[in-house]
């Protein structure tokens, strides 16, 4: 734990967020996401919800202002237009955190898996709600 | 996640609990415990409280019936006889989980650190309450 | 060993099953299967039959309900329509374990090898019966 | 698997038995033995009984004829003179395998643990019977 | 880089400070300190002064309130009572950062080396001033 | 060394032969073969001839009965139809070892190298005779 | 630190610059550059500006005289012809260091990333100014 | 050092030359060659000239008699037909060492780099003369 | 294999002999020697006799002329004064190889094991004769 | 190679000299010194003499001015007062390099070995002259 830093950010996760640069992406994944087989380093946070992790990550990491859609969720299989509760929660957290409006985009299930393969890292949370997955693209930090 | 197993038990923690044998000890530590420098493997569960972890561990791991005091907490510095709330919570969870009454013993702060050095592993939880530390000795599983 | 968990599931196998996510596949292989050269991590259970391992795995891991055929066996070389005894045994175990009917599909020998290359892991059992191989796709665990 | 070699001997176990020399010791341990924390390499054979493993090991490895007591079991805690069934089974297997009579000695529980710390390796079997532990000292193979 | 965290704290240093627990010690060392041979992990910050690093570390890490002297510098060889400018600077930074007055102690050169051997980590800065070394003991973070 | 197992089979070689499954291939190579650069694990047996190694390997490993040509040698460069003495020796050993007739095939030098790249392992013997190379495909072991 | 060598060159950076040969390229990157995900070894110099690092590197490493454009910067996104202050600073340092005039070329943002993927190493500085990135190609050192 | 073996051949270089087989290639490179980034293992001999190393290597390693051109140097950039002094020196050493005449071929600079990528190893010498690079193909050793 | 170097000396063994310095010791051990558990690196030469290995080693490595007894064998258990045939063979080989007479000393079995623990390396040969063990101390090579 | 740095200093040696701090010691050893078994990292410079290496090291590394005897050689066995030529050469190089007179001390052969065990690193040169060994203690670099 450290002062003034959300305590849910583990040493390994802080290392990762700090090492990421402009344009690198990180995945916050729910408990059913195939995170270990996706390729990138998998950081586990079994006791935490995806929403708590999103809030903590956005406290220290800006989203990419160079991209119109700096955050992506997964479409419901068979019902791509529905918005699960957890995705609505993600949007609320983004709205509260943003220094500029950040629009949530989304991807079909297997396209989401494919995009996750080139992420910097994947955080596997203990989120039980299905579709509790979000990809974030890191922005620039100006002095 | 797996069926019928508390979801807070991560793959690494399940591995550890399963690999432990009769008499091996594991430490559940709070967020301020110097777990990384103690020597044994440190398994982080940043998002979970010590009480939630204790409950989950006792769901799959029996305490040692060969020992009169199979679980140990840390004494309050300067007030060894006081019982912090979290220690009382530990005792309640033990009482509810036990197939036989398991008495909590305790150790002075630095003796507790010393005992932790020879543990099988240490779980660093996100427990914010001070003195949220407990050492458990694994018992025998009979067929 | 742990309470309430089949004792045949070794620490490494528990780790693996728990780390797998929705859609990841695991192979239970007989003693003649070329498991070490297939690519994925090979977990050995030399003293156990493939049927005992299947039963233990299904006790903790659900099959994928998103897929019509979440389990695959290997066709007999030169006689693709025959059903070896062990494959019949696999079907019985699936029928007994399932919360929903799971149909066994099958693949030609070299197609089976190819599919195994992208599995999460392969369990090499001590099964002496030929064709004692099965691929399982993990499902979602709902809270 | 190989021809003319008990199939329960896994690649890693064959490696180990072959690499051992005159006077090196190996432990066959039951499922509750604290094998991972003892120090030597731990070879798991979760699906096999201690007696099946002993039989297979003695098929390829001679006991040390230089020592009067080349095999040791663990005394029952609180009743050092009792002979558990599994120890009697060990003796029968030794009698059947031996080219010369090999006497079983025994050690108090913690002395047994201490002796195990300097073994070449420990085999953790799936043996459920308590006290299913035996230390074997390898003999010379003459051309 | 991250928001609201001094940018001089590299990913590895953030990891380290976050992983440290109550009572763990870290050394901030000058450019001539024998940091690589001391034993603990050495984290290099070649471009930074010791004072800039001290300021950044104290922004996220509290000193130990359980100890009367939670910070130690090195005595000048042959003149143990003198106070080099950089040590005076260290004291000023501590005074400005502290939620409670933290007194600087000091150790003879080789005693300082010895104490550094059991630190959690050593940060080798680019500090050119001699005696630019300080040991800090981490305190508790209360929720 | 072990009882009833050819003593020339080293621990690493026994491990390898045992870990191989149906259809995996192993190369027995002469002392001039470019074994280290071929890709597969290289097991050295510098003091042994290729014929002694072949005899020992066939004592524990069956050839693949599913394949008409389960063993391959290297053609003489510039004289593909000639049969070097050592190849004739290989055939004699195969004839003596076989539970069914196993026909030796052969490959042009660079095709042999290419095939060796996907072998399970390569044994580099001390064989001084040129063309002392043979690829063996492992068969099934029936209980 | 060493005599006559800029003290900002850390041991790892000296190793790298010395190991590079004719035509190898190194990237000096600003604090926002995605250096850890680019592929090459990432050497961090969090406390140093990109200009200080460039000056130190050119003190020991010549640019490639075989190439007309041995150094490359990144074009401003959306304004490829503008010359940011830091790029002007880079040019001044090159002019002062050169034994022969070295012309700065530049690449579009993603082409710059692509080129960085095949560099020998990337130095991540603490440079806060955007576009503080430069690729250098090492020249020949004549005796 | 060993008896009867050129003392300039370090343990690692002896290992490498001995492990190479028929047709494997090794590069002797000058001090400016980009050896570390080429791919193969790089063995440094900073204190030795390329000619001294060539002489020592040829004392223990034969060139390939199956190939008309078993040794290759690098063409001078912009002047492919010139023969630098060091290349003439290489030819003299080959002439003196050979049991059969070995003709030096050559490759354009980038073709030489490309060929070096698939070498068994690269020896980086301290040779200051430009174009002090040579690729050697190992021959057969007959008993 | 290399020219003018005994072909039984494998790459790893050549590396080892060359890396050894004045006063370092190497053990040539028979097939029953507990070489893997002794501590030093174990180099296997399963197909070779101890006498063939001794001859090859002495061809490249001098014995220590600073020590009166630069070579040691193991005493026969229970009969320390007897001289096994293989020890007589060792003496003959030493006599033939020496540039100065080298006297064989000997050690009791467990004292020999103890001495072997601090050797540079142990060569495990395929020697079937008991007591086929010898420790050699390397001498100085003068230019 | 780098500009203005002696080309005999390899990347690994530069790394080492730069990482050393005040009071750390490095050994320059002759070709017969038992450098690999001494414990510290061994850096080989097979083609270089001990005197050339000493000269190059002193060009970048100061000796410790806090110690009256910052450099030590090895006494001749049986003649501790004699001064071998190479030791006289070492003294001349020290005299020429020093910013202050540095006196050479010496140690008996086995005391020298013992001191070398705690060095930061050992450089094994190709020096053929006996007693070509020297231990250097690094001093402070003032800005």
UniProtKB/TrEMBL annotation, chains A, B, C, D, E, F, G, H, I, J:
A matching Pfam family: RbsD_FucU
Keywords: Isomerase
Keyword Chaperone recorded: no
Gene3D superfamilies documented for this protein: RbsD-like domain
Keyword Isomerase: yes
Catalyzed reactions per annotation: alpha-L-fucose = beta-L-fucose; beta-D-ribopyranose = beta-D-ribofuranose
Protein name listed in UniProt: Ribose ABC transporter
Natural source organism: Marinobacterium rhizophilum
């Amino acid at each position: 734990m450290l002062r003034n830093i959300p305590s849910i950010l583990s040493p390994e996760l802080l290392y990762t967020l700090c090492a990421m640069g402009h344009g690198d992406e990180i995945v916050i994944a729910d408990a059913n996401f195939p995170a270990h087989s996706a390729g990138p380093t998998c950081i586990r946070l079994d006791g935490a919800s995806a929403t708590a992790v999103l809030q903590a990550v956005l406290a220290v990491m800006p989203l990419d202002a160079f991209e119109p859609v700096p955050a992506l969720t997964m479409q419901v299989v068979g019902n791509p237009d529905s918005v699960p509760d957890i995705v609505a929660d993600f949007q609320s957290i983004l709205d509260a955190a943003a220094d500029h409006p950040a629009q949530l985009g989304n991807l079909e299930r297997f396209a989401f898996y494919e995009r996750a393969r080139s992420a910097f890292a994947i955080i596997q949370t203990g989120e039980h709600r299905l579709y509790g997955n979000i990809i974030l693209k890191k922005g620039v930090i100006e002095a």
